[in-house]
Write a structure and sequence with these properties.
Layout (H helix, E strand, L loop, with lengths): L2 H15 L3 H22 L7 H46 L1 H5 L1
Length: about 100
Amino acid sequence: MTREDMLARLIAQADAQGGDLVTLRAIVEESTELGAKRVLDRLGLGDANAHDDLDELRELLGAWRDAKASAWKATVEWLTRGLLALLLVGIAVRLGVGNMLR
């Protein structure tokens, strides 16, 4: 029996006998399970390989975050070096090092 069949029977039972708490809970449980399965199927995660796919996506996301952090770190380092080089050139010009070398 599929989840759709089970849900249809539970709804028919609730209609025929009245909605007692157990029946209503069973309807809610079957509905949520069915809805979750539909969502996973629509996302392409309803198959047996979904767990492996999610693991690969997590690894890829972790690698992306590491690469992004490394890129920012490298950018800040290069900017710092450039500013220090400009500062040294400015100090050298201020002190007249160019005139001393002539």
